[in-house]
Amino acid sequence: MPPPGSRVHRGLVAGAALLAVFTLAAVLAPWLAPHDPLAVADASTPVALQPPSARHPLGTDALGRDILARVLFGGRVSLAVGVGVELVVVALGSVIGLLAGYYGGGLDATLMRVTDVVMAFPSLVLAIGLIAVFEAPGLANVFVVLILLGWTTIARVVRGTVLTLKSLDYVQAARAIGARDRTILLRHVLPNALGPLLVAATLGVGGNMVAEAGLSFLGLGSQPPTISWGAMLADGQSDLMTAPWAAVFPGLALLLAVLGVNLVGDGLRDQLDPRTGGER
Amino acid sequence: MTGELGRILAGRVGALVPVLLGVTVLVWAMSALALGDPARASMGQRADPAAVERIRRELELDRPAPVRYVRWVGRLVRGDLGRSLRDRRPVTAVIAERLPATVRLALAATLVSIAVGVPVGVVAAARRRSLLDHALMAGAVLGISTPVFWLGMMLSLVFAVWLGWLPVSGYGGGGWRHLVLPALTLGALHTGVVARMTRASLLEVARQEFLQTARAKGLSELTVVMKHAFRNAAIPVVTVIGLGLANLLVGAPLTETVFAWPGLGRLLVVSVDQRDVPVAMGVVLVFALVYVLGSLLVDLVYLAVDPRTRHAAAR
Fold it and tell me: How many whole angstroms separate alpha carbon A230 and alpha carbon B215?
């Protein structure tokens, strides 16, 4: 954290503001959306692929659905996948990282070998391969696959921090006065690993959002009627020449949301690491 | 010294064995799970039982898992990845046909990321904390955060649809005009990473005393940065460029889909979509092997270039 009186990190503030806007928009989507995001062309949405207008601020898609409404509801899916997957990943990864770093031995060796193997694949390629294992595509598969791929990063980060911490005097002292392992891990080690963990988890949220959109764009993720920015982009690409707004706005939303997450992640890293913090 | 280097080399290559073992086990397991009962899947519900049995024997589904894995690796070593379920062609032939397009795209994208990323990083470092520095670094974060497939569509919208300078998509028989937009798209993410790494390593080096000496001699800031700092900052940058292979391979399925580029990434997506498991898993395996060998190569270059890493590695 910055010492009192120091300048607040500008990127961090900008990123947090972006994230706040997107979170609010996602939560309030049912009240903010001007139309039903699933309503196809009818009396209220007369024609497909309408350019932005007062009635449809971001235009309509090939089925005459309101793009603003779909972008708002798509944000719910994107944020839910991004944050939801990361919560599971952090819980799983930190337990494994804590145990491996603290006890070492066979558990640690196994963890390192498994993460080596997972990291030997380009992540999206492995994600696509794992998706192929499932019978039918869907958002639930994306959840499972992203958890399977994500925990290794967190486990490595926590393990690394634990390895440095456990040789420090205060941990040794706690052990010397007979504190139990669980107490040492939860009271003395974990709180000090929170900084790097927070940075990795934040960047992980952005990674999850991009991965979900990418898989849905490729037709391997969420399926209709689930609204996903990635799937909207896939639909929009076929009308790129005649109705660019159908691809521009969902992509812009994804870009700004991920930018927000990355700015917060970078900002946190700078604030927590005094070495890079001074450079800004 | 040579003996020590040889020992390190052997160590690095030896460390690959468990990784490659794990990679093959994982790909084989995914493939077995994804196939389920491919005999029935490929023949349909009303298939002739004898024909189903024949395919099952051909795929050796009647044998225990470890035996199947060992035999699969045995065939793999001989370059046999099985046959496509769709057109019965050997998977290796299908992959070999698509590989050149992906290699071309990856090389062009790497070129883009170096040609743009390194100068941006140098300028940002030389004008540290100026408005220009902030603008360039904001651009880098933007490049890193932009979803590659959306960027591809927007570039195609502007330069192909509106301006009409370049083709919208396709391979175009290998002409360079078709390569420009996919290469810019795929290179964008990595350009941001290279720019940030270049700037960061230059600033790290800039704290060293020999630069103070250079400045004290009255050399201009740009000369100091280019002649003294850059040479010393190059090592981490080279690593990042090498590891960029990872980013490029990750982006390949998306970029190739946007631009209808006939490479391995597109092949992977289509074969998963069509449930052509042997082809899909063959591509996954090739990507993993390229990735693993790529990082090994970076490690080796690192060892050759920076003597300090040799001592670290020897410990």
Answer: 51
- Asked if residues A89 and A127 have their Cβ atoms less than 8 Å apart, the reply is no
- Strand residue runs (E) in chain A: none
pLDDT at B308: 64
Burial of A21 (0-12, 13-18, 19+ CB in 10 A): middle
Q: Which residue of A has its CA nearest to B280?
A: A129
> Which site among B149, B168, B292 would you substitute to test the A interface, given the most A Cβ atoms closer than 10 Å to its Cβ?
B149
How close B64 gets to chain A, by Cα (Å)?
20
pLDDT of B118 over the 80 cut: yes
Chain A / chain B CB contacts < 8 angstroms:
131
Chain A nearest-CA residue for B272: A132
Contacts of B249 in chain A (CB under 8 A): 122, 125
Burial class (CB in 10 A: 0-12, 13-18, 19+), B226: middle
Gap from B279 CA to chain A (nearest CA, Å): 11
Phi-psi map region of B255: left, alpha, beta (phi>0 left; psi -120 to 50 alpha) = alpha
Judged against a pLDDT cut of 80, whether residue B307 lies above it is answered with: no
pLDDT tens for B155-193 read 888 888 788 787 877 777 767 778 888 988 888 878 888
Token pair, residue B261, equals 């580029």
Q: Please name the residues between 126 and 155 in chain A that touch chain B, using a CB distance below 8 Å.
A: 126, 128-133, 135
Which two structure tokens, joined as six digits, stand for B14?
């030896």
Q: B200 pLDDT band (50/70/90 cuts)?
A: confident
- Distance, in Å, from the CA atom of A182 to the CA atom of A186, rounded to the nearest integer, reads 6
The token pair at B246 is: 């990872």
- A225 preceded by a cis bond (ω within 30 of 0): yes
Residue in chain B lying closest to A124 (CA): B250
Query: Radius of gyration (Cα) for chain B, nearest Å?
Result: 24
Tell me the per-residue pLDDT of B268-289, one tens digit each, with 9 for 90 and over: 999 988 888 889 999 999 988 8
- Using CA atoms, how far apart are residues B87 and B93, in angstroms rounded to an integer? 12
Tens of pLDDT along B4-52?
777 877 887 888 888 888 899 999 888 888 877 655 556 555 667 777 7
ipTM above threshold 0.85: no
